[in-house]
Amino acid sequence: MKIIRWCVILIVLWSGFAFTASAQPMETVNIPLMRLGTGDIGCGDELVWVQRQVEVPDATILAALRELLTLNPAVLEEEGLHNALLGRPVWIQWVWVSAGTADIELGGSLGVFDECEAYRIDAQLRQVALQFPDVNAVNITVADQPLEPVLDQEVVDEPVPPTPPEDPPNDVAMYTVVPTDTLSGIARRHNTTVAAILELNPHIVDPNLILVGQQLWIPGPDVAPPVDPPPTPAPPAPPPDEPVQTLRVPLIQLGTGDIGPGNDELVWVERQLPVPDAQILAVLRDLLALNPAAIQRDDLHNELLGRPVWIQWVWVSEWTADIELGGSLGTFDEAAAYRIDAQLREVALQFPTVNEVNILVGGQPLPQVLGIGN
Asked: What pTM was estimated for this model as a whole?
């Protein structure tokens, strides 16, 4: 049997969970940050190690890498530190350590950077692995490209986030875009709609493109961004030689069916997806990241979008699919719980080799986490 393990982008800490899984083991890990202008890396920068208490549900190297991709130096007591990875549209696909070599594959993109930032990115990514005694060499790829040529393609013009009108209407508040935000995610978290946000922010040219640091007017009272927003990366574009297949992803139409107290309906959408391993994994990865607005289906809803959860492994054997997800499902009401359950189960049950599904989230059975029956 083949167990396929995938680790996806970020650990997200979300306050005020309505439902929570049991705590994961905590360990102290070292995270490499940068102090600018005080050393000999690249443009004269210095590597500085900071200790962090983090959850370690799998491997320590994975926990350290996840923390590196999300750690904002502003939350630390020590001032003057810089994280060249913070806010970049990149996520972990897999990490493998064998015979003294760590192979790290990242999905997404490193975004824009100049030559100095390229040296910082290289140093931080390599040192996060080389700190471990069983690692003496590191191979890193980003979207299937070796790190070195990716960093050689430097982009020196940083995009400037557009600013909203200076005189807002009444009963609105300012919101600053943080890494991994989408308009639909912002709207959902603040009980409004994408259309309402766009009406207040005519400077937004493309609803699918907002920038970290961009300021938006949001309907409602004072708005503060979450400490760590949920990840919503799009699936990585496949390289030319990676197979692509037409697969179905289960979304939700609200109020038109018989699922849960919301009387919701399951709707299948066809997607062209890269399939480097198993079809069920490809669909599950797409489900966790698919924004219906990005496929011009504003009439549909994805209850998994933006939730701080990632795939740990999927195993299909004797007509049963065992799916383990890391992280947490965050906050949800009873209607949302039934949507989550239906979408996750139907991802697997659509395949003819599966007639039963067992799902764990943070080590707990899904029905227990959701507070509903099987």
From this structure: 0.43
